[in-house]
Amino acid sequence: MADLLSDTEIAERIPDGWEREGDEIVRTYEFDAYLDASGFLAAAAGVAEDAWHHPEMTVRWGEVEVRLTTHDAGGITDNDVDMAERLNGIYE
Ligand SMILES: C[C@H](O)[C@H](O)[C@H]1CNC2=NC(N)=NC(=O)C2=N1
């Protein structure tokens, strides 16, 4: 199981566009249309299933809010940082 990251490690490793909120890292991806947002959600779900690390995702008009934490560890681990980087990679 992944180890919890320290506050310093989180600050150093948090990917572009993401912010820390307590035991989660959060990013809201913006889109021109609802179907673009929902398409991103579907692609992100595939990446999450592939990595077996599942974010909380909320689709709204033109945006998808993604929240990551490692439930098994009770906080933020490299699994969250890695997933955030992967999601940044599929966001054109
Ligand atoms: C048994 C355990 O729930 C699984 O190994 C995976 C599933 N997906 C997961 N997703 C997230 N975000 N955190 C987890 O700890 C986690 N654990």
From TrEMBL:
NCBIfam families: PRK00823.1-2
Highest classification ranks of the organism: Archaea, Methanobacteriati, Methanobacteriota, Stenosarchaea group, Halobacteria
PANTHER family registered for this protein in UniProt: PTERIN-4-ALPHA-CARBINOLAMINE DEHYDRATASE
Gene3D superfamilies: Transcriptional coactivator/pterin dehydratase
Keyword match Lyase: yes
Organism: Haloarcula rubra
Listed name of the protein: Putative pterin-4-alpha-carbinolamine dehydratase
Molecular function GO labels: 4-alpha-hydroxytetrahydrobiopterin dehydratase activity
CDD domains: PCD_DCoH
Record GO biological process: tetrahydrobiopterin biosynthetic process
Catalysed conversion reaction: (4aS,6R)-4a-hydroxy-L-erythro-5,6,7,8-tetrahydrobiopterin = (6R)-L-erythro-6,7-dihydrobiopterin + H2O
